Amino acid sequence: MNNIASICLAIGIALAGYFISNTLYKSSVGVNTADVKGLAERQVKANRVNWNIGFSLARKGNADIDGLYKRAELDQNKIVNLLKSNGINADDISLDTIDYSFNEYRNDDNQVTDVKHTLRGQVVVQTDDVQLIKKVRNKVNSLIAKGVYVNNYKPTYLYTKLNDIKPEMVKEATANARIAANEFAANAGAKVGSIKSARQGGFIIRDVGESYGDTAKIDKTVRVVTTISFYLED
Asked: What is the pLDDT of residue 112?
């Protein structure tokens, strides 16, 4: 009877050892991976530009408000005409409402000593002709000599064709990740197998030469990073 018990105990220990060994083996294979990052970059040019031109008109005292509005509309038309005469399409030009503000100036006794009437408006240009805006912008300031007070804001340059380059950039980033995995595997005496998991980072657009900011320059850098886990094989 004791011999039977001993045999059963030995079999049990052997089976337990097998299962423990098998579990460790599978665990070892499961963690036998390389996690690497792949980068892809493209140099592109902005294909869309938004440009605001502000203008204002102010009068003190008992001003003729109706006449002031008519003068503001004339200034607005001067800006629009300059843009059109320099090649900007009328469909790319829009006009904001002319806003009116009123300020009172008071002395130490809180008595009104003067008043100021101000009208402000904006002419907005949105176009795909990016290079044209560079040329026309320098000409707008000439209106100052004609009595138009303009605020020539900096254009906002945008790249809106990201979907056109996304597939190739993701493909390139993935290929670069595999190159990094191959180098890692070679040092470890292994081979790169299939992909275990992959995670794509967001696409980032920056002005060339800048670590932040993406609207001040025509030239842009588009960047994406993928993080991929590859199986390693003996």
From this structure: 80
> Model pTM greater than 0.85?
no
* Amino acid code (one letter) for 106: R
**pLDDT at site 31:** 61
- pLDDT, tens only, 79-93: 999 999 999 999 999
CA distances in angstroms from 146 to 68, 78, 149, listed in the order given:
17, 9, 9
Question: What is the chain's Cα-based Rg?
Answer: 35
- CATH number for 33-45+160-233 (one of 3.30.110.170, 3.20.20.150, 3.90.580.10, 3.40.50.10490): it is 3.30.110.170
Low-confidence ranges of the chain (pLDDT < 50): 1-2, 4-30
Report d(CA 57, CA 75) in Å as an integer: 9
CA angle 176, 177, 178 (to 5 degrees): 90
- According to CATH, what is the number of the domain 48-157? 3.30.70
Query: Would the CA dihedral through 64, 67, 73, 78 be positive or negative?
Result: negative
